[in-house]
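Hi,

I'm pasting everything inline rather than attaching a file, because the server keeps stripping attachments. The sequence lines come first, and each chain or strand is labelled.
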Amino acid sequence: MGDKTMTTTEVGRSLPRLEARQKVTGRANYTHNLKLPGMVHAKVFRSTVPHGKILSIDTAEAASYPGVAAVVTGKDILDVVPEPYYGPAFHDQPILALNKVRYVGEPVAVVLADDPRIAAEAVELIDAVYEELPAVYDETEAMTSDAVVHDELKPAGTFPDLKHLNGRKDTNIALDFHLKQGHADAAFASAAHVFAHSFQTQQTMHTPMEPIISLAEPSGDRLIIHTASQSPSFVRSEVARLLGWSENRVQVKVGHLGGGFGAKLYIKLEALVAALALLCRRPVRLSLSMEEQFYTISKHASTFHIKSAVDKDGRITARKCEVLWNGGAYADIGPRVTQKSGFTATGPYDIAAADIDSYALYTNRPPAGALRGFGIPQLVWAYESHTDLIARELGMDPVEFRRRNILKDGRPHVTGTVMKDAAIDAVLETLAERMRWSEPFDRGEGTVKRGRGVAIGFKACVSPTTSVATVTVAADGSVTLHHATVDMGQGSDTAMAQIVAEVLGVRTEEIRVVDPDTDVTPYDMATLGSRSTFHMGNAVRKAAEHARTQLDDMAKSLGMAETAAGRVKEVFRRTYGMQAGTVVGVGTYIPEYVSPNEDGLSDNVTPFWMIGGTGVEVEVDTETGRTKLLKMVNAADLGTALNPRIVETQLSGAAIMQLGFTVSEEMILDGGQVTNASLADYKIPGIKDIPPVIENCIVDAHTETGPFGAKGVGESATFGVSPAVAEAIQDACGVRLTRLPMTAEAIFHALHGDKK
Amino acid sequence: MTKKPIKFVLNGREVQAFVSPDDSVVDLLRELDHFGARESCGQGLCGCCTVLIDGVSVTGCLELALLLDGKRINTVEGLDADGQLSAVQQAFIDTGAFQCGFCTPGFILMIEQLLDENPDPTDDEARDYLSGNLCRCAAYPEILSAVRNAAMKRKTAQGADA
Ligand code: FES
Ligand code: FES
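And the predicted assembly:
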């Protein structure tokens, strides 16, 4: 057992992931691998119209197709789930479409068969007839459109930070968030300069390599759901609510995830497989194809109008932000994106007065939810592009302009929350140094020009949320950790085990981490928004400390030493007369938080801030528009790293993913239909797309309230990528792009005029 | 559909199986509880389903299982048959060349083949060779380190054998 005051040996060690061997031998336990005795395979029949009334669904031919076990429509679902609407913010999404469809690709019916290929063939035999309704796709049009996606909205009331939701009747606004700090209008009236710009982002998809998958199996009067989910506790409570059951009748089991990035949050397929399993009384497996993932969840397209008042010394005195989030047909967690991200829309700058208006909008597109950054990359794209454009117009160096306005610890953010443990300036300075910003820069020659840019961003953590963990010490001294943080590749199992090992003075490799299973692992809000290291990390630390205290007390009452350190086995043996007994330590963590008031202000709006930034050097071929990244530097404040090597992989992985959203990825829609729902036409970064030089820097920092000084990191390196590339392109060839993605084609047209 | 019997050698072991004409190699491997080759894109675009058939890498999601008759097939599960990780597998662990691990078996098999053909590839050669494999976690920089690291490990092992 460890001593409280010793310097850390397990925390801060770059050991490989605990499951490394299983992963390199192909034996990691993905839900994808699971086969259940007697299971049937489900295949979804999807809407072909963007918005319409369902007039009829003809399933007769499919039902009589040889090998088909059953065909199920929305009406059949009502037999087991009378109120079949789910969602974390609004109960707006039906398990299968009822009466109406709201986007192309929406699930309308399901075929069940022993052979997945039979199910797929039979789906082709289903025929649905719709009466088409006017549709709306664009977020700006959705603000005023007569096409209304939802006639009625039922707030879920699940999460305390979304309790106030009510939505508005007869509009497409799911949530509007407003912040008012100081007197922005007055500041604009007296400003030396006023700058206004608008920026847009496109709809994109997570494309985890393990496609979204769930299985459900009836078991007596219970249901077991095996699912590749980032939120097992939510799945349990939401499925229990839908079925009208107590939570302990629903067991949710999760293995390792083959990537998540926000795609596998809340309810995706779980409610559907649960209903199907109850209807056909057999285990049901539903695994989406890569194509179907694009019809399931995506990242918000957005439009951001931003306006700044600047004084004669280059200080920003006020900022106005209007952000429109294209949430697609169902709100998913969009309202939280709108609010939690919305209030950071003015950027990591010291600004006295601000007005923010942020709107979550329904449209007839595939739903949008959380994708690595929870809306922050969309905001940083706009406010940092705006920052660079202001610096250009003022004739100031962009790094210098940022320095002059940067938000420092001890100063209030526009919400009123005083900044703490937020190393924004350290991130900027690290970038400037690693980019050799003050040194002369080779601008290329001939038609190939070179340029560079840096950008920084920050994010508040979703709050208030709860994590619970237990640490069990067996009579032989071996240790087991139960917690429901889902390891989707970020290395959470390893990091949490390191915390336990540190507290109990054992080797991390000896700790057994139990996979999330709601029958045995306690509640956790979800694995999202880079919250786990901080929230679950604190809960795990408390649980380990609780176990240690109990062991120490046992040692003391035996008249042994003050601590049980190094003698756990003996403590158990002498307490119980043999190798027997168990010590269970429990830890619960919920941070303090103050809900924003009616002006969107709060003096404690987040338990911690994540800070990230990126610098890039690019080369633009001005004849073709082709851009090559030569160098990328990512810097982040993640507190004190628990496992520096895993953290670095997280930084470069996040930045490269965002690079895809910056230069190539875009879901292209035609009449509401995604026309490129395949990795053939939707281009994610491959090994040849990464810059030859990538540097990842962990700035020297410590988060006082974090476990051993740590905080979240999974998203931080996404923040700065897009605006840094936009600035570098302008620096190289003089054109400024204000819409993502910045493809070669877009740059070419900007350079040489519009399409012929 | 009528199933046909086939015989093949899976990771050094003789196997007989009955397969449908439309079973893919990945389908068949799942039947045999081999999950290392896995379907992701299902279109030959990502390499998650990579296997070696008679020593040549093949995308298992598109290859028909029937064509395995009389062939040798190697999957990631066979690489540590003697209980020892291969140099490439060990290099992946030592350089941290994966996050979620879903793409990892595909990359590992491709790199085994690359190093068999070219024991000392440059980074550019490795990039070219691996351009058909996708990793959404984007562990690409670490995968390139793993190639270098594995090349070295193999050389050292050969030196020790000689
Ligand atoms: S699953 Fe075979 S190449 Fe993607
Ligand atoms: S490690 Fe996750 S896809 Fe490659």
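Strands of chain B lie at 4-10, 13-19, 50-53, 56-59, 72-74.

If the labels don't parse on your end, tell me and I'll reformat.
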